[in-house]
Design goal:
The chain is α/β, with parallel strands linked by helices and 255 residues long. It has 8 helices and 10 strands. The strands form 2 sheets. It has a 6-stranded mixed β-sheet, sandwiched between helices. Bound molecules: adenosine-5'-diphosphate and magnesium ion. Keywords: ATP-binding, Nucleotide-binding, Transport.
Amino acid sequence: MDNTVVHVKNVHKIYGKKSESQFHALNGVSLHIQKGEFVGIMGPSGSGKTTLLNVISTLDRPTQGTIEIAGSDLTRMDQRKLADFRSEQLGFIFQDFNLLENLSIYENIALPLSLQGVSSKKIEPLVTNVAKKLGIEQILTKHPVAVSGGQKQRAAAARALVHNPAIILADEPTGALDSKNAKGLLEAMANLHEQHGVTIMMVTHDPFTASYCQRILFIQDGQLYKEIKRNNNRHDFYKEILDVLGEFGTSHGIA
Ligand SMILES: Nc1ncnc2c1ncn2[C@@H]1O[C@H](COP(=O)(O)OP(=O)(O)O)[C@@H](O)[C@H]1O
Ligand SMILES: [Mg+2]
């Protein structure tokens, strides 16, 4: 059985029109992500990480190349199909939680399903189930203002997962958290991957955050630079990540 969830084939992204000054942000990137993997994307500031995440998440289109997710070729879909695809097959976790303050945690998690028109009767067990996986069953009736940053981000993770997407895409998910809450979120994400086979791709500049991944792709100047896999304990992987970041030199800010 083919377990490929994401297949990026020779993707280029050029910003700017032909008549203007152009910038080649992605320069022939190819990668695979298998079902159940927890993959990190790292690289210096300006290397193309956000651009890569945006083309995979259907928020932007590549200039050249193809992207397949769960067997569908995104580059062949029109905007309407892409919007449906996004809401059914993708889950997002952003740096700043993006929870709606007027809704309870329960309602926030339920939102992707409510928007798809799923009945509240069907929604209830799905929300309870993901809340359990993320350890936030006890805060479902609260509003975002009444819970910690770490709990908000776990609620955001639950919302990303509730419709059982093919992949969760996370952009600096620990960026707004203190170290204790960051650790709690990362352990929850690692648990989703290890215990529940959830597929996650995460962009981060932070080596500690990245050390929770199983595999890391480093990009530089819009191209794949190196790939490392975690086959030892997390602490050793962390040191390995620092070594690769060191190769980018101090002239590059890592962001
Ligand atoms: N909309 C845009 N128009 C022109 N250049 C852009 C645009 N978005 C990003 N870039 C350029 O593309 C390069 C890669 O950007 P980005 O993917 O945001 O890098 P990263 O997330 O790794 O810091 C950068 O040099 C950036 O200035
Ligand atoms: Mg970026």
